[in-house]
Amino acid sequence: MHDGKNNKVAATVYVRMKAVDMGKDTDGIRSQTSLGSWAEFDMKFNEDAIYCSGISHEPDSTRTFIDALRKQKPIEGFSGERLPASTFFYDQWAMSDMESVFGFTSRQEYAKATYSDYIKKWDEEWITFLKDHAGENIMSCLFLPKDTADRHPCAVMSIPVKDEGLAERRLQSLLHATPKEESVQVEPRVDPNYREYPRARRFRQYMLPRNTVLTQLTGITESALHTLACFYRGNLLLAPDAQSLSAYVDALENSEILDDTSVYEEGIGVLSPLYNFAMMVDMEEMMKQPETYVRLVPNFFFRQAKFFRHFVIAIQFTCTEGVIYPNLVLLYKGKVES
Q: What is the pTM of this model?
């Protein structure tokens, strides 16, 4: 770390990102992610935020997170209108080249923890389905259920589809032709809880054969690879349990969304509108969640919890002419009560 690089930069930090520990120390699956090689960050500070603007010194043809992002067409704009108001984590991936993204995510430890020939077959079927019917980005979010006693957050992945009717008919055909998996030890959570979320009742939910696609992109293994699906407003929604789908749809139907809220607007205000990957996380809330829901956040932030719990963290990767620029912004929330 050194200062004096120029008048506008407080410090420059060089970070080796080859194998980064992810999630909490208490997680039974000690996952590591190959983010890239080296990155250089110029740091600026003010009383409200810490800004880290970076550039990746990453060679071509390495199977890392950064290399997978380099092959994608960028996303334009943000998705606050598709996020429930209680969202405390969300990310969005550019997915124009699905092969490179799934080539990276399929190697994560949490995606391989429970595997079989049946699950492998359905991974292949499901990725083919997404190639045929999905759009070019995928968004995931964690948000709070109405029942504050529920120990699990709600989790939903949202994928735009090219033709919702055609995609739903194709899914129904696949499900009709799929044999039941034998000897499944963990039953899925299929109660949609329409009493709490009545406006979700008219949107049909489907139980998918077990696969790792949701797990690969979210790190969630709580449901033992069971996945629920629902088509909604031109998007395919995936979740580890039925209540998450109901809660998500009910929130959007009631216009209870994150868009225009002060913290969200402040967060996206410091990011580029054109990007290959973005993540925003309220660390105070994230630290309260079970291990199986927080594997996309580097372990460093949890190990330094006393400091980072005071921040909303925004992470973004943009790509220009094959060069990846990682940016990290820490927005100060003020003192958090213990």
A: 0.94
